Amino acid sequence: MPEFCTCGTKLVEDARFCHRCGRPTSEEFIEATPAAPPPAPTIQDAVQAKIAQLPVNFSNPIAIRVALLVSVAIIPIEMMPFLNLLLFVWWLGAGWCAVLLYRRLTGSVLSIRAGARLGSITGILTFLGLAIVLTIGIVAAGNEFVSQLEKQNPDVSKVVRDPTVLFTAIMLFMALLFALVVAICAAGGALGARFAARGKR
Q1: Does this model's pTM top 0.85?
Q2: What is the DSSP string of 7-26?
Q3: Is 181 a member of any domain?
């Protein structure tokens, strides 16, 4: 070890650095500790990441699970008195909530098109649940339901008593209901995806 530093200061015995300028008194090769390797992804993380990259359609299990969960949650609300007057709002909210729940489960932000697809899947499942509940209610009511309709409007008896006309009326009503539910839920999904993407920025 030299007695003087390059700056002219006399070095203290066994000093590793100059107490004036801080220069090291000798060159030491300190081996850098190797950085710890990143933890290997678990099988569950790998599967989750792979599923998150799937397109949003009926082959995506997370999309189906989310849509089914939201549709099951919204059906009781649609059946409640007074709340059922806001059906359009609940359908719009169903699509929106499906996008938020999908993002929470996968961590991926959906595009507007993918959000609309997820909303439409939610709408299809919501329509199926609603159709089942309505069918059970009409079958359970039976003749009482028909007689009440006839009391309110005598012209309805012509439709109810004729099987062909009744079937056509039911199909038209179900087609209109299907189109409304799917379209509004898809709009809610698109809006949810748009605002989720804006929030991420």
Answers
A1: no
A2: TSPBPPTT-SB-TTT--BSS
A3: yes
Cβ-contact 42, 66 below 8 angstroms: no
Domain-located, residue 129: yes
Within a domain: 2: no
Over residues 142-158, the mean pLDDT reads: 64
CA–CA distance, 150 with 137 (Å, rounded to integer): 18
Note every long-range contact of 69-78, with CB atoms under 8 Å and residues 24 or more positions apart, other chains counting. Answer: 69/101, 70/94, 70/97, 70/98, 70/101, 70/122, 70/126, 71/122, 71/125, 71/126, 71/128, 71/129, 72/129, 74/126, 75/126, 75/129, 75/130, 75/133, 78/130
Token digits for 157? Answer: 């008896």
**Residues facing residue 10 across a β-bridge:** 4
Residue 174 DSSP SS3: helix
pLDDT in tens, 44-87: 556 555 665 778 888 888 899 999 999 999 888 878 888 778 88
Phi, psi of 139 (to 5 degrees): -65, -40
Instruction: Enumerate the β-bridge partners of residue 24.
Output: 17
Total structural domains within the chain: 1
Domain that holds residue 177: 61-200
How many distinct helices (H) and strands (E) make up the chain? Answer: 7, 0
For residue 154, give both structure tokens: 């005598």
